[in-house]
Amino acid sequence: MSKVRVRFAPSPTGPLHIGGVRTALYNYLFARQNGGQMILRIEDTDSTRFVPGAEKYIIEALTWLGIEFDEGIENGAATCRQSERKPIYRQYVDYLLDNGKAYVAFDTPQELEAKRSEIKNFQYDATTRMGMRNSLTLGKEETERLIAEGTPYVVRCLIEPDEDITLEDLIRGTVTINSSILDDKVLYKSADNLPTYHLANIVDDHLMGITHVIRGEEWLPSAPLHVLLYRYLGWADTMPQFAHLPLLLKPDGNGKLSKRDGDRLGFPVFPLDWTDPKSGEKSSGYREAGYFPEAVVNFLALLGWHSEGDDEMFTMEQLIERFSLSRVSKSGAKFNYEKGKWFNHQYLMNKEDKTLAEIIKPQILEQYGVDCPMDKLTKAVGLTKGRCTFPSDFWGQIHFFFVAPTEYDEKTRQKRWKESSPNDMRELLAVLEGIDDFTLENTEKVVMQWIADKGYNTGVIMNAFRLCLVGEGKGPHMFEITDMLGKEETIERLQRAIEKLKVEN
RNA sequence: GGCCCAUUCGUCUAUCGGUUAGGACGUAAGAUUUUCAUUCUUGAAAGAGCAGUUCGAUUCUGCUAUGGGCUACCA
After folding, report:
1. CATH 3.90.800.10 domain locations along chain A
2. Distance (Å) of CA A296 to CA A16, A261, A315
3. Distance (Å) from CA A354 to C1' B31?
């Protein structure tokens, strides 16, 4: 068998949808696993839907995720665009026309629309084409005259009715569709001299030596048409194998996951932030939301595919090793972003404290205006990473290490600030002042000893102490905090709190 | 409406005729803890329905139901 070559063929009509990202990922995994090649091809055959910036977005998104291409990208720009291959397609359109596999049609959109409203379930096919305005009914001369006059036309594929067309799908097995339900699809339009997806797709896949077409399930109904086109063009023996992926569905309700669902449910459905150039409408992306690319890849890989065994955490390398089309599910997968968050948490946990500190340091400076020293920040990150899902969660967990509380959480005060607390804290203050070796171990030892000697309730003391230093009833181990804060700061905060809380009580 | 595809815990899924139907997310309870959170333990939770094939069906077949996709001079 020839070397595996797959392609990811997005259309630059907007930001790359997360489902498209998964399709790209599966193509990539399959290619890498088989030592094959991955090609990017921009399918911009609909000139009316072109969106500036979309192509760049697609490349940036896939690059961010670590999905690499062997062909189709140079210096960060796409090198294969269907709009730039017009002469190539025209050649095959002519071939089909000359061989009676296609014909020219002049029906205007309005005429077609009229037909559709006039006849229920109207379809341009063997049963209706002889009643339409095309080269079959007009004759060669009239057709040529109209074309010469510049009348807009399309080229339609001539489908012979009543033939069972079967294809072997790598995921679904044998799929059979009768040609009678296929319509005479438009393959080419004179308006912009561009083919439609159906023709361009077949021509390019053939010319580029594509061996496996891995795409979304929405293409399954038109796959028989594609099979027919391979036959018409004489390429049946080198036709690629097909694998139609299950769709990504809405987390609630039913239907395909859409852009709107992200806005509605509050999670990204795009890899990167995107601002629509026309409307200015913004859509949020995984990258900006604080997701790690490895987490997104891992999460997406499991949506529709499952490894042998119960493992779920996979690096890209492990995915390449384990991926298998035969283990891709057949049914659509509801998008469960809660699990996506869990994956991100896992990846965050696995990162070095220093790495995370480096990520959040500039963010904290920019957002809160606090310039945290790296060593302290790294320590604080290590103490709190277990409770964070995104890098942006950290500040809420560690701010008190860097900024003294100016006010105290009312609920915590009511619960933890007892009548004895002012006195307890004054005593504790004296104890702390007497400690020279203010390390975690020693401070803890001395304070706990003092509590034991006095017969105090540990919880009462420690919770009030926490309220004084943190301002809230949360945070890591108390002596981790005193250790980080240092003697001077600890005492200062304690004094201030005693003053403030006493008055307020 | 027509055609195609699908159908196991709430969700993602394992099982390739014989299992106490497994795992993960989420969820509930308990334990731990000086707080919050983590962590740990335990629990609840599924084969759409009806026939058929078979010694035996979640697994194979058919029908029904449900869901999804497609049905454009969009991809």
Report:
1. 85-245
2. 14, 18, 11
3. 33
The number of angstroms, rounded, from the C-alpha of A473 to the middle of its chain's C-alpha atoms is: 37
The single residue of A189, A259, A351, A502 carrying the catalytic annotation is A259
Residue A267 CA distance to nucleotide B47 C1' (Å)? 32
Nucleotide of closest approach to A183 (CA, C1')? B71
- Residue A361, phi then psi, degrees to nearest 5: -55, -55
Question: Looking at residues A299-325, what average pLDDT do you find?
Answer: 95
Cβ-proximal residues to A465 (8 Å cutoff; 6+ apart), any chain: A425, A428, A478, A494
Domain topology for A410-504: Arc Repressor Mutant, subunit A (1.10.10)
Nucleotide whose C1' lies closest to the alpha carbon of residue A181: B3
Backbone angles phi, psi at A430, to 5 degrees: -65, -40
| Concatenated DSSP letters of A195-260 | E-HHHHHHHHHHHTT--EEEEEGGGGGGHHHHHHHHHHTT-GGGPPEEEEEPPEEPSSSSSB--HH
Q: Which residue is nearest to nucleotide B10 (CA to C1')?
A: A252
Long-range contacts of A319-325 (CB under 8 A, 24+ apart): A319/A29, A320/A29, A320/A32, A320/A33, A321/A33, A323/A26, A323/A29, A323/A30, A323/A33, A325/A26, A325/A30, A325/A170, A325/A171, A325/A214, A325/A243
Phi, psi angles (nearest 5°) of residue A358: -65, -35
User: What would the pLDDT profile of A328-346 be if each residue is shown by its tens digit?
Assistant: 999 999 998 999 999 999 9
Q: Which amino acid, one-letter code, is at A10?
A: P
Residue A504 pLDDT exceeds 70:
no
Count of beta carbons in the 10 Å neighbourhood of residue A426: 14
Closest residue (CA to C1') to nucleotide B23 in the complex? A310
Q: How confident is the model at residue A1 (pLDDT cuts 50, 70, 90)?
A: low
Protein-to-nucleotide distance from the CA of A386 to the C1' of B39, whole angstroms: 9
Contact positions of strand B to protein Cβ (< 7 A): 1-8, 10-15, 22-26, 34-39, 67-75
Region A103-118: mean pLDDT is: 94
CATH 3.40.50.620 residue ranges of chain A are 5-83+247-301
Q: Give the global pTM.
A: 0.95
Q: What pLDDT does A121 receive?
A: 87
Cβ neighbours around A408 below 10 Å, total: 20
Q: Which nucleotide is nearest to A42 (CA to C1')?
A: B75
Is residue A259 part of the annotated active site? The answer reads yes
CATH of domain A85-245: 3.90.800.10
Angle, helices A458-470 vs A478-504, to 10°: value is 80
Say whether A134 sits in a helix, a strand or coil. Answer: strand
CA A339 to C1' B75, whole Å: 30
Q: Indicate the class that CATH gives domain A5-83+247-301.
A: alpha beta
The residue type of A230 is Y
Q: Given this model, what pLDDT does residue A505 score?
A: 44
ipTM given for this complex:
0.95
